[in-house]
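Dear Dr. H.,

I hope your travels went smoothly. While you were away I took the liberty of generating a structure for the chain from your last submission, since the lab meeting agenda had it listed for discussion. I wanted you to have the full record in hand beforehand rather than looking at slides cold. The sequence, exactly as received, is reproduced here:
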Amino acid sequence: MTVDNIQKRIWEVGIVPVVRASGVEEAHRAVEAIYMGGILVVEITMTVPNATKIIEELAKRSGKHVLIGAGTVTTQRDAEKCIDAGAEFLVSPGLSVPVLQLAAKRGVLAIPGALTPTEVMAASEAGAGVIKIFPCSSVGGPKHIRALRAPFPDGKFIPTGGVNLSNASEYFEAGSFALGVGADLVDLKALRENNPEKIIAGAKALVLAVELARAVRSRT
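The corresponding predicted structure, in token form, is as follows:
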């Protein structure tokens, strides 16, 4: 899959679930529930134990149906490990030019993090096509995205941090490219209590919210 195709898939789904599972089997069950809810993209963060092993196993089991990415990628070395494990996109909390360069060389989408206009400019100049806005909720949430879109009307922003079903529509109305959603969707407690239906229902609700918000935007 090309970088453009990966970017298009993320836009089409509109949601990037952030999974912080404790192991391979838990991650697999989380991904399965997310997939059953209609979301075909997941991000496994490097902050969990054996993250690259989890990515590798998920890529083997679910890679044909689900776009598997790696999150909290902060160094070129970690980026290389994630790509070798099968990650098709990399997400970082900030800007690492070496990560962007490696991803471009390997044909993988890299999504750096930014918060301010200066950081957005730096990420764009370094070659980023899609930018994670983090931590978005701490600086105004949807209002911050709307403010950034004024000087960067073509910016492809993925707000992350405090994004959930209750504000998903506002974020899309503000011009978000997609949304990064963590524990509000990937409820590991529910999974551990053998209640994947909670994650499935949450995923379905978010998919519907994306569809409705985009339908509204297309009419305005």
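Two observations you may find useful: The first strand starts at residue 15 and ends at 19. Residues 196-218 form the longest helix (23 residues).

With kind regards,
E. W.
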